[in-house]
Each structure stands twice: as C-alpha cells, then as structure tokens.
Write a structure and sequence with these properties.
517 residues; alpha/beta; 2-enoyl-CoA Hydratase, Chain A, domain 1; 3 domains; 8-stranded mixed sheet; 7-stranded mixed sheet; 20 helices; 17 strands; 38% helix; elongated
Length: 517
C-alpha cells in the first residue's frame, strides 16, 4: 500500500509528464519553426503565477485506428483561467505537439467547458488556435465537437469578448470558430486559416496556390478581412491580445475600463486648426488627427490593411475606452464601398454590444459608384451601416471634419440615426452632393442658356457652396449641435463623454432586429 508521500510524489510525476505535452523533441521542432508551445503562450498571456489549469488529466475515449491505449497529454489542448492586468480571463490553447492539436470529442469538451465557464462568470475568452484539424480517427464525434464549440461561440456573442489567436494551422471546420469570434489575431508566417487547403483546391478546381498565399496574413487580412490584427511572432500576438483586452469590458453588463479620474482634460491643439487643406479635393491623413484627440496618442487600429478607406479602432479619452470610426481621405477619397461598409458595421455592433462609446469622424464624398459595386450589393452592404448605427444605444458622438454628402452622411451616424452629439468643424460641407455635381443637375438649363456657360456654372457653384457647403445651414436645422474650432475637439469629446456616461436608451422588446445580411 502506497504511503501518502508516495501518492503525492506520483501526482507530481504525472503532472510533470502531462505538462511536457508531446515531449522534448516535438517541442524543439516547434521552436525551430519559430513557434512557442501551448503553455509558453499561456505564460505570456497571463499575469505571473495566476494561471489555474482545468482538466489536465483529460483523455480521449477512441479505440479505433490504433488509438486504443495511446496517451495524448491533456488531449491536445490546455485550458484554464488567469488574470490579465488583474482581470480574469479564460483560455484554451491548442497543443500542436500532441497529436497535431487535432480536435476530438474530449478535446472539444475541454474547450466547451471553458467557454461555458467564461460566459457564466462574465469574463473574456481567448482561444489560441494551432491544430491540424478534426481528429479523423474519431469521425463524427470530432465533427460534433466542432458543432458544440460553434454553438458556444453564438451563446457567448455579445455577452463576453471572444478573441482568437491563429498561431498555427486552422483549417476546415476549425476556421469557423474564429470567424464567429469578435477579434482574430494572426501570427505572420506560422498562422494559416482556410476552409479547403491547396491540395483540395488543386484537385477540385485545378488552381495552384501555396498555403501562405491561400491562408496567410496577406490573404486573410488584406483580401478577405477575416483577420483583424497581424502579429510578427507568438510573443507579439500575446502582447496585442493583452493590449486589446485593456480596452474592453469583461462582459456586456460591465462598464468599459476607465483609467481616468473623471476629470475632463482641457487641451487646445492649435495645429489642428490648419490640418484640413484649403482645397476640398486635396487629401489628408485622418490618422494624423486621431492620435491628437486621444490619451497619449494611443490608438489601437483594427483591420488596418482591409478596406483602408475606413479607419476603425480603440482609444481612450480622459481614461474612458472609446471606439473610433473615421473616413480616410488618403484612400479613395474616403468613399464608402462594400468592404468598408462591412468593416464599419461589424465594429459598430461590437461596440454597442459592450456599451463602448462611439466617436465617428466624417469626411465622406458618398458611396462608391460603379457596376461592380452595384452588382456586389452595395445597397445591402451600405444598409448594414444604417442599421448598425440606428440600432446602437451606446453613446454616439459624431464630428464632421469636411465632406458629408448624401446617404453616406447619414450612414456615418448623422443626427437622424440617433447621434447624441453632432459637432462640425468650420470646414464641414453637409449636402446631398458636391457643389459641382449639384449645379450640373439643378441649374443645367440655366447654364446651357447662358452666354458664357462656364462662367455661369462657376457662379452657380459658388452660390451653392456659400449656402450648402458649410455647416451653418445644417446647424440652423438642429442637425448639428455645435460648430467648433478643430483645436477644441478633444475638450468637446471629453465633455460629451462625461455627460453621456449614464445614458439609457430603452428599445421595443423583440428577439432581435433583422440586419440586412
């Protein structure tokens, strides 16, 4: 009969063996590829000595295809809970050194349990993906596992923040779970995400493409928009994750983090007064404006390479977390197209779900014209923006910097879409369309009949601009609350946020609205 000490020693040895994962050789192989192990990643995510593991002793129940008696430490996934900057966060980190991190019944059970715990406790969930896919030997049990994970993704949506890190392969059905989470961080080079791999594509369509070209960061950030942030390595990915969490509340009934003392910072930035070019057609970089409006110039941009004609991200003003949406005049003049509409709509809905105030900076000439855009459904995609902003009950503050034309003016959260505050710079132009286009429509006959049509056209353009290409006409109709000097914008935003921190907006009871998907 074993003594108590012997049993304790046996426990220590079992835990040590299980925590080695696939063993020293496989760990070394991962390191050679530039990857960290599942446990090393967890160590970088959490505050020191705060991680508590769950279900370390889990083992598969498969007896087919040589799996009987085969030990898979922790069944290829490490799960548990720890703190990030003192706040509790749950994690599931797949272990590629153990059976390629393949998902089977028990592996999925562990992920599902930790997702349920995160939701019940009201804390964010981080899933670090590094898996060869479904465990083929477990057949439909593996597929069932994915289904249960997807179901939890939906249950958790809008309740607790969900962050996926793609640190290795994430292929097939596994790709859908990150796609249903709130943010996806991918590691350049080692991270891959796609539904069907290069070999299958070649067999079915005859197309030849590499795994990186198909599922790497350039494809899934720049082209598809699936990925929200790109990390250069595992360490960078975990730092990005920690930084992102610092802007987010723990759940949908908690207030966003506030690092301030409830004092409004009175800052005048005289350089802002000269940042808008005199020529209304000359571009400028809105990313030079945003840092001037937020604490310490700290702006965390999301999806910076996807639909760059729109800029979204998180920042703080007087310590309060805010979401920022802005048109980017440097790219396509800041016009709204299909991709930017989707990008903005999803971000707005996330901020609303977690009551993060939204600041919208407007300089938009309209929606993108063109056959490809119309055939691609720009009406439907643009309607998502109208829906997302209208459905938002979180504080909404809009600042019109320059152009705000047509339906795009409304889509960028005009007063009629429920903006709590709308301010405008003196350079703002609020109208159905630009002066040149408007005059060609309204005064077409007069211009044609004039002795000097070009001179007449210029005269009409100037008259139109004087009346409509200013913020004063809209302000006279109470569609703009105040016209401010650019230098006072940060103060304006700080005061508005302070006054709106207790905002309550009750909507009619319903299951959910029907966003035009």
């Amino acid at each position: 009969m074993s003594t108590v000490y012997e049993k304790i020693q046996e426990l220590r040895e079992r835990k040590a063996r299980l925590r080695e994962g696939g063993g020293a050789k496989r760990i070394a192989r991962e390191h050679e590829r530039g990857k960290l192990t599942a446990r090393e990643r967890i160590g970088l995510l959490f505050d020191p000595e705060t991680f508590q593991e769950t279900n370390l002793f889990a083992q598969h129940r498969c007896t087919d295809f040589g799996m009987e008696g085969k030990e898979l430490p922790a069944d290829g996934v490490v799960t548990g809970v720890g703190t990030v900057d003192g706040r509790q966060v749950f994690v599931a980190s797949q272990d590629f050194t153990v059976g390629g991190g393949a998902v089977g019944e028990v592996h999925a059970d562990k992920i599902v349990r930790i997702m349920d715990m995160a939701r019940h406790c009201g804390n964010p969930i981080v899933v670090i993906n590094d898996s060869g896919g479904a465990r083929i030997q477990e057949s439909v049990n593996a597929l069932s596992g994915y289904g249960r994970i997807f179901y939890r993704n939906v249950l958790s949506s809008g309740v607790v923040p969900q962050i996926a890190i793609i640190a290795g392969p994430c292929a097939g059905g596994a790709a859908y779970s990150p796609a249903m989470m709130d943010f996806v961080i991918m590691v350049r080079g080692t991270g891959k995400i796609f539904i069907t791999g290069p070999q299958v594509i070649k067999q079915v369509t005859g197309e030849v493409i590499s795994a990186d070209e198909l599922g790497g960061v350039d494809a899934q950030m720049d082209r598809s928009g699936v990925v929200h942030m790109v990390a250069e390595n595992d360490e960078d990915a975990l730092l990005l994750c920690r930084r992102l969490l610092s802007f987010l509340p723990s759940n949908n009934i908690s207030d966003p983090p506030n690092f301030g003392d409830d004092e409004v910072t009175y800052v005048e930035d005289l350089e802002l007064n000269g940042i808008i070019p005199d020529d209304p057609r000359e571009p400028y970089d809105v990313k030079e404006i945003i840092p001037r409006l937020v604490d310490e110039g700290d702006f965390m941009e999301i999806q910076d390479h996807f639909a760059p004609n729109a800029v979204i991200g998180f920042a703080r003003i007087d310590g309060r977390s805010v979401g920022i949406v802005a048109n980017q005049p440097m790219v396509m003049a800041g016009v709204l197209d299909i991709d930017s509409s989707d990008k903005i709509s999803r971000f707005v809905r996330f901020c609303n779900a977690f009551t993060i105030p939204l600041i919208t900076l407007v300089d938009v000439p309209g929606f993108m014209p063109g056959i490809a855009q119309e055939y691609g459904g720009i009406i439907r995609h643009g309607a998502k923006m109208l829906f997302a902003y209208s459905a938002t009950t979180a504080p909404k503050i809009t600042v019109i910097l320059r152009k705000a034309y047509g339906g795009a003016y409304l889509a960028m959260c005009g007063k009629d879409l429920g903006a709590d505050r709308v301010a405008a710079w003196p350079t703002a132009e609020v109208a159905v369309m630009g002066a040149e286009a408007a005059v060609n429509v309204v005064y077409r006959k007069e211009i044609k009949a004039a002795e000097d049509p070009e001179a007449a056209r210029k005269e009409f353009v100037e008259a139109y601009r004087e009346k409509f290409a200013t913020p004063y006409f809209a302000a006279g109709r109470n569609l703009i609350d105040d016209i401010i000097e650019p230098k006072d914008t940060r103060r304006y935003l700080g005061l508005a946020l302070a006054s709106l921190c207790g905002k309550r907006d009750t909507r009619p009871q319903k299951k959910h609205g029907l966003i035009p998907l």
